């Protein structure tokens, strides 16, 4: 069945599922009229995880539920009931890891994702690959609200304030504010403020002069208002393990909650993050092996050379601020209705800078407006100043006509604007920078501040969605059908181009259908299918800067939107001893979007391109045990077979002429798609002493579309050891722990930072010679590190 037919089939199945659920529900309304309809609780634990009901007398009934009874592998896996794949790490596991860890560190043992991080301090970000896709194809959420890519994930929330992190690799709930979720969703859920006054403080110190301080205070219920809050602050400082420079992060979290007797609730979460980072260079394969063999170095220098400021480490950094606000409101309404309203706002802003040589020859250039003329080259800093507001809201009306049927009708609005200015300033004689907005030290050409690039790109999304979930056969059979229709307007404005504004509009239907059946109290099977849409980076719409001419040219790689159809078939088993999760998946992707280096007028430019069609098939398997003599093992494995289904348009040389041709990539293995990802973990926890160890293997993966360069398979490992002391007076559960990473000190590559089409010259489909398109660069796994942490509650 071709892609168009499968898309039509999915849409039809979604409509039929919704119609069937609605018809069944309304047929039962008359029978249920006048009766009390209990609310639907889709996440209630199975019967064997609920303790017996104790009836002391006719009016005294208590029900006890063990939260950890839903966990396996020491919190590395959780029992799930959804009709799609869900992979979750819980607070039990998170508490055993270093507080400096980010969500990326927490999920790297899940079968569906491979993670690349660049440091052990939790300050610098990283990258996620999932089933041949990247985090650009993933919805990265905090409390169900979009934040940013994995590179900025560390800025969202402190680890101590995270309750759980869930990855749904093949699906996204229809009411979530995302469209680009071909690789699914990663959602971190923050803690809810306690009803009692208290708090937590901890201190960490580790390798590379890493130090971290954290303090959280919870107000408890404030008077009789029912409002409770928490506020926390952390500070982290660390030296780069690879290359010169240090990184520093300051972070603030604040939460407030209010519950009402009728079931209504209001929750506020605010975070602020400020950081200054100096990220090391990403090496090529040759540079990596030279460094490994001790015969060279590729990184920035710790000393300043005015003839080559681009190599000075202190001139390659990033100053970044983020503010995140969300205020979800749930309102209980009469007549079986309820209403959810979730506004959000995310601000990102700052600048990155690099050392450079600025040539004033023939430009009428000056330092400052009308200041000292420049005739030759002067050391300078190039600044990319970024302002990125992102706001939106989800409004949803819920209706439960009967106890076993739930309907949702909603609207989602999303707006993001990315404003970028590239400006230059002269350097001090010792290589130090001036403040980038100091106009007296800025570089001017013809009396105007030199800004070779001034961009403004963004989008507006208006979306309507509807879904219906119905339960039959005493809640054993669940049917879900829904559709989201997104109307997207994206634009780019180039202030230095002759055609400054380009925009595009799309209307995209995104259907979903899911079925699950609980065979008995131990076994559940499910099937899920949905469509997904990803729009290209709005900046790819416009013209690109040609460094050779100093002007702008049209982008011949203007990419089309990516569309995916995903199917899942799964089985879960859970009893008092262990739990398993087995899933088969299939992805069909058209107009695959990838970021790579392309050549325009013989100039290498980073751009997003269409890499043709792609198919990804495989299996995920997870198994873990509930605690047995305080031991909880965990094993996961994914087998993935992802192939490119198209040749890539390019240019080659034939008979001395430049001609259009196709790079023969059809049938090649997709980039960043290891065939095997396997992890194993073991947890011991007797209430006082605890230990958690894990090891993960990722097989080789290609970094070029022609499969002529790859990363060999590699191992990563982690070990946590700790002890919880008895509480003493006001001091609650003092704890000491040690966290180790990369125990063997291996120097390995864990992922591709930049991709290229072909690292070696190739023969095109039509016979032309296609030159090598560049050299990939790579993420490196940080060397051995250890972090010690002391914490105490109060």
From TrEMBL:
What does UniProt give as the signal peptide span? 1-27
Give residue ranges for domain TonB-dependent receptor plug: 82-174
- The TonB-dependent receptor-like beta-barrel domain covers 289-743
Main localization of the protein described in the UniProt heading? membrane
What are the annotated GO cellular component locations? cell outer membrane
Q: Which domain of life is it from?
A: Bacteria
Is the Iron keyword given for this protein? yes
Q: How does it sit in the membrane?
A: Multi-pass membrane protein
Q: Where in the cell is it found?
A: Cell outer membrane
State any single GO MF term: siderophore uptake transmembrane transporter activity
Keywords, comma-separated and alphabetical: Cell outer membrane, Ion transport, Iron, Iron transport, Membrane, Receptor, Signal, TonB box, Transmembrane, Transmembrane beta strand, Transport
Pfam families attached to this UniProt entry: Plug, TonB_dep_Rec_b-barrel
Q: Which family does it belong to?
A: Belongs to the TonB-dependent receptor family.
Give the protein's recorded name: TonB-dependent receptor
